[in-house]
């Protein structure tokens, strides 16, 4: 009761409404995620199963999104492709965020040679444009989504590192942190109590942008046929495959395009306008 | 200034090192017998036999040990000897030089086009924040930013090339072949640079010195020319540096989409063919191009903003 009134008093004193863009972004993303993960439960069709009688058939009641050029269910393929993109993007963002943020704090905390060594490491990965690095890693381990995952994570971690490093550097000299350290509190307490509340909202923005970058990179590599191999459904690859049949079945080509668009748009909206 | 350029030089060294190590791992990690792969790339998959593979192996010295190979690799790299394409047999440096010309042509056209589209619209929007132009521009740029380059390219092909038939979808040699790929890249770049210009212009237009310029009797056009443009151009030019990542990445995808015979196209095809020397050469040149462009942006900012020269 007591805590309830207190928290409501706090929210009343400083109204903290989510911006409209962010709400729209979260809603669209949630719908796409639901579509991707519920479809196989409601509609258990194998995304690689062919029925050649239905090649490029238009959407109908029995097959809401129609068939592709090999008579495969577009609904099943689109959902599978979205699961692949979402899963890979989520994994890479997570793998990039945790070490990136921790190394950023470490660099700012220790300073000196640790800071310099970690910054040089960051520069190494920043020197090449991200897609180039991912492309070269996929050349090292062709035909595997793991190369994509490792490559994208290696590109994304730097952003977290730079952000947390810059924030921690200013925070660590603040009177509040100095007081905590003088009182004998350890790093875990200071990170949880002083650093995390400042860093967390920024992490969300960077993570949303990172996920958008990852999804675009996966699609771009699929599109130039370097990433995932057929018959695995992948958004970029589906576009390459369906492009020659644009005249007969424009609906088929438009589906992966709309899927990528909605995903990236929702993530951009979540990220907000500040971190363009 | 020398410190900034020194950093870029350091970055260039890092590019060479990263590309060198990555391609070296690549050549070691490739599955299967490399001699057979290369022989297949040269003579076609149906014509490969043990003799052909062995001929390739002795010719290219594929049977030496790991450390010797790495040492050889770097001594070649330092002397900028990029080796010979294992598929076409031509020197990589000549191939890359040839392709680089096409890529630079495309990239220049894209940047110029994006500067014609983006910042003017952004400045117009920033002069009246919240107006019709501002809202419309926000909508268009958010849409464009949510579409990867190749989707923009695809839509342009569908609408302008196959739909209306006004421009060729792919090809090279005629001036109109340049339009679609350059426009694809330019739209992506302009989507961001227009927002940067808009925010910068809104900031400048709301500043006291801008209001004073108006109060002392300058016309709208005069105050924009005398007090607005130079202040707005620093963030735009700075942001151009960030956008070069987009440009380089876009070149890879857009060249492949439009079959433009540049470096990105060559890189993707070298990856298909496992042509490691060409992968190394193209990746190296693209990485170095990226560093060089950033160094040029540093210089441009230095020239535009006299405050940096004092510091």
Automatic annotation (TrEMBL), chain B:
Question: Is Translocase given among the entry's keywords?
Answer: no
The reply on keyword Cytoplasm is no
Annotated membrane topology is: Multi-pass membrane protein
Q: Which residues form the ABC transmembrane type-1 domain?
A: 100-297
Matching entries from Gene3D superfamilies are given as:
MetI-like
Keywords of this protein's UniProt record, alphabetized? Answer: Cell membrane, Membrane, Transmembrane, Transmembrane helix, Transport
GO cellular component terms, A-Z: plasma membrane
Q: Where are the transmembrane segments?
A: 12-30, 106-127, 147-166, 178-197, 236-263, 283-304
SUPFAM superfamilies, from UniProt? Answer: MetI-like
Compartmental location: Cell membrane
A molecular function annotated in GO for this UniProt entry is:
dipeptide transmembrane transporter activity
The entry assigns this protein to a family as follows: Belongs to the binding-protein-dependent transport system permease family.
PANTHER family assigned to the protein according to its UniProt record, in alphabetical order:
DIPEPTIDE TRANSPORT SYSTEM PERMEASE PROTEIN DPPB-RELATED (PTHR43163:SF6)
Q: State the protein's name.
A: ABC transporter permease subunit
Give the organism the record lists: Microvirga makkahensis
Tell me the organism's taxonomic lineage.
Answer: Bacteria, Pseudomonadati, Pseudomonadota, Alphaproteobacteria, Hyphomicrobiales
